[in-house]
C-alpha cells in the first residue's frame, strides 16, 4: 500500500517515488524504478550513488533501480523525520479493508468515507460496528519491519 506524502529531501523523495511511496520501503513494492534525462544532473547524481543501479538507456532516458541500500536509506530517513504512516485493517460488515493512515481513528474515518459512498451508514453507526487493527507487517517504515 502506498502513502500520500512528499519528502523535503529530494534524493529521498526520488527513492520514495521510485518505490511507489510505500508504507515500508523494505517490503516488496509494486515498482522500483525511476527514469531520468540520461545526460542530466539527476542521472549523474544517481549513477554515483549506492542507492541506485543503472538500467537500460532508452533514447534520452536512463532507467535506474533502487538498491537494497537505497531502501534502507529511505527507511532510516523516514525514522529520522518521524513518519507515522502505518498499515491498518478496518473490519466492518464482514469485510477486511486495508488502509494506510497515521492512527486507527484516521483509518476508520477513511474507510467510512469509502463505504458511505455506496452504503447508507452514518459515521456513528460505522464507528460502533467497525474494528481497526494494525495489519500484520503494518509497522511504520521507521520500525523497519519487512
Number of domains: 2
Largest sheet: 3 strands, antiparallel
Compute the number of helices: 5
Strand order of the largest sheet: 1-3-2
Give start-end ranges of low-pLDDT stretches. 141-146
Helix content: 25-40%
Distance between the termini: 13 Å
User: Would you tell me the overall average pLDDT?
Assistant: 92
Report the principal-axis shape.
Answer: elongated
The Rg value, from CA coordinates, equals 18 Å
Per DSSP E runs of 2 or more residues, the count of β-strands stands at: 6
**Helix/strand/pairing class, anyone?**
alpha+beta
Run of helices and strands? HEHEEHEEHHE
Beta-strand content: 15-25%
Polypeptide structure, described:
The structure is a single chain. By secondary structure, this protein is an alpha+beta fold. It has two domains: 10-81, no CATH class; 86-143, no CATH class. It is 34% helix and 25% strand. It has five helices and six strands. The chain has helices spanning 10-18, 41-47, 68-81, 104-116, 123-129, and strands at residues 33-37, 52-58, 61-66, 86-92, 95-101, 131-134. The protein is elongated and about 55 Å long. 31% of the residues are buried. The model is unreliable at 141-146 (pLDDT under 50).
Amino acid at each position: 500500500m502506498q502513502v500520500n506524502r512528499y519528502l523535503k529531501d529530494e534524493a529521498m523523495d526520488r527513492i520514495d517515488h521510485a518505490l511507489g511511496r510505500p508504507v515500508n520501503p523494505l517490503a516488496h513494492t509494486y515498482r522500483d524504478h525511476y527514469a531520468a534525462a540520461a545526460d542530466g544532473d539527476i542521472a549523474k547524481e544517481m549513477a554515483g550513488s549506492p542507492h541506485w543501479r543503472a538500467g537500460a538507456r532508452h533514447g534520452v532516458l536512463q532507467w535506474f533501480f533502487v538498491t537494497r541500500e537505497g531502501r534502507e536509506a529511505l527507511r532510516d530517513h523516514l525514522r529520522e523525520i518521524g513518519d507515522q504512516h502505518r498499515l491498518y485493517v478496518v473490519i466492518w460488515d464482514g469485510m477486511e479493508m486495508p488502509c494506510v493512515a497515521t492512527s486507527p481513528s484516521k483509518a476508520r474515518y477513511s474507510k467510512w468515507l469509502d463505504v458511505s459512498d455506496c452504503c447508507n451508514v452514518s459515521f456513528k453507526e460505522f464507528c460502533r460496528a467497525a474494528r481497526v487493527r494494525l495489519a500484520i507487517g503494518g509497522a511504520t517504515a521507521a520500525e523497519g519491519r519487512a
